[in-house]
Structures are given as structure tokens and as C-alpha cells.
Design a protein that fits this description.
Layout lengths: L1 H21 L7 H12 L5 H13 L4 H36 L1
Length: about 100
């Protein structure tokens, strides 16, 4: 069970890190990328759930990319998933800032 949890957590971090590292153009570009990975490929959430989370992320204060990442992580694996996905975005932002 712990190996499955670790694989899921690592997958959440890796996908979020890659989305954040290789997308440009604002928070809205993250939504189709999350749809590709979490709805179509892994089938961890439904398209309707992702659209609902996008609406909530848009109406919540803060960056949309971070908000939707936290919501998706929470939906998939609770508080731990939310923290892991937020860390995936934060790590990317720190690396990008060091490059400048």
C-alpha cells in the first residue's frame, strides 16, 4: 500500500512540476494540461470535476494555477496531495526565479 501511495505522490509532483515548468501564458493554460494528464491519461478525476475545480479556482484569491493544482491534489489524495501539488508549482517558480 505504501508503495502505491509513494508512486501516486511522486506522479502528482512530477506531472505538476512538468506542467508548471514547460507552460507559459498564465494560469489558464494549466487547465488543458491537467485535463490531458489527470482526466484523459490517468483517469483520476472526471472532466466535470475538473471544470468545477477550475470555476472554484477562478473565484478564489490567488494564482489560478496554484489554486487548481491544490484542488486537484486534494481531490485525488487529500491534504497530502494538495501539499505535494502546491510544492510542485513552488519548486518550479523558485527555479525559474534563480535563472533571472
Amino acid at each position: 500500500m505504501k508503495i502505491k501511495s509513494f508512486k501516486l505522490y511522486f506522479s502528482l509532483f512530477r506531472i505538476t512540476f512538468n506542467i508548471s515548468a514547460f507552460t507559459f501564458g498564465g494560469g489558464y493554460i494549466v487547465i488543458p494540461m491537467m485535463r490531458k494528464y489527470f482526466v484523459n491519461d490517468l483517469k483520476l478525476i472526471s472532466e466535470r470535476e475538473l471544470l468545477d475545480m477550475a470555476a472554484i479556482a477562478q473565484s478564489t484569491p490567488g494564482a489560478i494555477a496554484v489554486n487548481i493544482a491544490v484542488l486537484v491534489g486534494y481531490r485525488i489524495s487529500g491534504i497530502t496531495g494538495a501539499v505535494i501539488k502546491a510544492d510542485g508549482i513552488k519548486c518550479t517558480k523558485r527555479i525559474k526565479q534563480k535563472d533571472h
